[in-house]
Amino acid sequence: MGVQAIHPAPLHGEEEVGPPPPPPLRRRRLSPLLLITLNSGRHVSSLRTIDSILSVFDNRTDPSPLFVESRISSSAPPPPTPRAPRIAYLVSGSKGDLDRLWRTLRALYHPLNQYVVHLDLEAPAAERLELLARVGDEPVFAKVGNVHVISKANMVTYRGPTMVANTLHACAVLLRKSKDWDWFINLSASDYPLVTQDDILHAFSSLPRNLNFVEHTSRLGWKEGQRAKPLIIDPGLYKSKKSDVLWMTQRRELPTAFQLFTGSAWVVLSREFVEYCVWGWDNLPRTLLMYYTNFISSPEGYFQTVICNVLDFATTAVNHDLHYISWDNPPKQHPHNLNINDTAKMVRSEAPFARKFKRDDPVLDKIDLDLLGRSNGSFVPGGWCAGEPLCSDVVDEPGWLKPGPGAERLQRLLKRIVWSNKFVQNQCLAWVVPSRAFMEYCVWGWDNLPRTLLMYYTNFISSPEGYFQTIICNVLDFATTAVNHNIHYISWDNPPKQHPHNLNINDMAEMWPLSRANSKGMT
């Protein structure tokens, strides 16, 4: 006897209800995988069955997510921690500099950075080949691949434009070798670090990546007559043997198409500014490179004049070269050679670099031991170091930094020169015509500074030469708008007297080119 389904009798007043009708057919889009699965099943034979399966998804009341991925919190992940900055170094030397260049390179090394090392054409071929061999034989350099030797050496003349050309060459190589660096620093074999690379990278992590550390001034002083007006030729441009620059009998006047600036030859440049100098999407970097071809000590003026004549970059210039250098007063051509008696002054300067040092001077051993924690020519210990002996290998994550006391010193220096009013007061912007917003501030003075300074300058001789300047440079909102030029042609004695010259028809030749240059720049 077969099994018979038994249905309960309907209650009084109820109609007998048959099987529920199938749900209405709805047009559905199925993935090819789902269609194949459904149509290949033995018990799935109709669209009704397909719809009944899909209705499980449509009509489920379980609020819990079906897929495990949905159970993961959909809140946005925390923002990534800013990566440690990377620095691209040029370390250059000449004849007899192989060993101290090698020492400086090892004291500067960090796997995150990039390095170009260059011994110029005056160095014997044996020294240049030895440098190439040392870099190739160093296991850490070989593993990381971030030390590059300029094999086709340049002739570099001291005080000549070939020094600038060599620096730009290194910049171009570094731009091509790596897209992953933030600042360029040029050093010589007679420079030495006073802090570890972990210290520098840690301290620079808090800085805007567009800052440029370029010591600069538009007050040429004695350099106007001894640097800007003489004409020289650098034999390194066309000779294969080094010789001193050639002096021409002719002299030239100061340029009127741009303003000259001077400063230190040692710079820390942002990648953005380096790209501008090398690629030059307007013509100023190339124009100035040609102008400085006949300029004595051009490394002390080229980058300063470029950055201070381009408004986009002038506001990024920090007036410091991050070096401790001991000069005579007034400065001579060369600074003092530092020795062990200068150690305390170097540390107090809080600068990350110092120069200049004699080869293997005992002070370098003291810096290694006391400031860098380095001995026996090893690398400077840092968060990247692994292996036995220490720093003979690189950890998997070399971005982990171990800053020490040097980072604290450098951060104090950066606080003084970047995170203070000194930064905006020392910018090298170039003209001054007060804007309406600034004049409203001076007249209405919604804080009390304009009135305070007005009273202060009541007892100040020649107060018109200082009142507006002092206001604008002490108010951060306006200091970044100040351009260092008064849009006037004025003829002064040198040094200036109380009054300028009265101009006459003989001054037209001087006034006319300047007025054309100024009007062209203002349009």
From TrEMBL:
Which residues span the membrane? none
Q: How does it sit in the membrane?
A: Single-pass type II membrane protein
Q: Name one GO cellular component term.
A: membrane
Principal place of residence? membrane
Region Disordered: list its residue ranges: 1-26
Q: Which Pfam families match?
A: Branch (PF02485)
Per UniProt, the keywords (alphabetical) are:
Glycoprotein, Glycosyltransferase, Membrane, Transferase
Give compartment(s). Membrane
List, alphabetically, the InterPro entries matched. GLCAT14A/B/C (IPR044610), Glyco_trans_14 (IPR003406)
GO molecular function terms here? glucuronosyltransferase activity
> What's the domain of life for this entry?
Eukaryota
**Protein name in UniProt:** Uncharacterized protein
Which species expresses this protein natively?
Acorus calamus (Sweet flag)
